[in-house]
Amino acid sequence: PVVEPPQQIQEVQDAIVRFRNGDIDGARALLVAACKKHADLPPADVIMAQLFASVGQSDQAIRSLESALKESPNDPEAFVILAELDFRAGRTTAAKFLYSQAERLLSDFKGTARRKKLILQRMCSGMAGLAEVAEDWPTAQKYLEMWLKDDPENVVALQRLGRVLFQQNKTDEAMEKFRAAKKANDQVLTPEAMMAQLYESAGQREQAAKMMVAALTAEPKNLQTRLAAAQWAFDTEQYDQAKAQVEIALKLDPDSFQAKMLAGLVAYFMKDYKEAERYFESAHLQSPGNFAALNNWALALTEQDEEAKKRKALEVAQIGIQAFGNVAEAWSTYGWVLYRLGRLNEADQALGRAAATGQLSPDT
């Protein structure tokens, strides 16, 4: 949640250089001077927190934010960032208290209009998020509307408000917000497809199907709409329909990574393992650092009867544990491949290592 520090100001650039060279005090001194000259900058310790966060020093980042609270007790930004960190960690009570403190300070905040706007948006997003987690839909609606009053064409806020309105059975209003989001950014998902997903999550499959048909009718050549239809069909175990939709998506964009991954999953569940192998291998070559593509490639290979495919599966699974050794599923896939090769002792060790992590997915 801690954004990159602003780098367009010379003093900030110099401070970043000093920070990277280990001169922490020198970096902070430059930032203090910069903040006196540039009103749009947050307090120096907030920027220091951003620098510490950028190099993975979270404890130092938190200490800098706490220092910012002491040095600038009327500035709400440190409260918002600490709230975001607590929210991410699941400490919702602490997050709510900190967001509330930020909201209280914002009413009399003397910072620039630009800073106040950005902090207000982050506070509203966080408070709405807490309310969404608690399924307190009216409160979530209140903060999302507050956000949109300040930024009426914000696509994220419009879509979130649409979902919140749907949860309150305000379907017409929800559709209105999804249409506004689509108007603000033509690349987002079709409003009808958004509604279809929500109806499905609410257990109203017949209505979801109607909305998905309406989405495809409205935008038959929209890649995201086709992918949404394919995903919905896949999730509802309509594999023939999922295959048809994802094939159209791949015709619209043959290089779509998301379409390749979904096509591979559909083929895998239809037990067409050669086809699944083809899609997952292509997805892996397109994005070598993606764990799911590599992992699913190994699984598609090992389900085939040819010994050469099983040996290839072992090579791919070994790459998986080398690159993603801290992921339980990498070890469970490696163990499954070994098991399929009849190497039971090694399989037992690999599966035991996966189980020992305590973070097991259903596949693991």
What key phrases describe this protein's structure?
single chain, 364 residues, mainly alpha, 75% helix, disordered N terminus
**Count of discrete alpha- or pi-helical segments spanning 4 or more residues:** 20
Radius of gyration: 25 Å
| Bulk shape | globular
Give the integer mean of the pLDDT values. 93
Structural class estimated from helices and strands: mainly alpha
What is the makeup of the main sheet? none
Please provide the ordered H/E string of secondary-structure elements: HHHHHHHHHHHHHHHHHHHH
Task: Describe the protein in words.
By secondary structure, the chain is mainly alpha-helical. Helix content is 75%, strand content 0%. It is built from 20 helices and no strands. It is globular and about 70 Å long. Residues 1-5 have low confidence and may be disordered.
Write a compact overview of the structure shown.
With 364 residues, the protein is mainly α. The protein has helices at residues 10-20, 24-37, 44-54, 58-71, 77-88, 92-106, 113-133, 137-150, 155-167, 171-184, 191-201, 205-218, 223-235, 239-252, 257-269, 273-286, 291-302, 307-323, 328-340, 344-356.
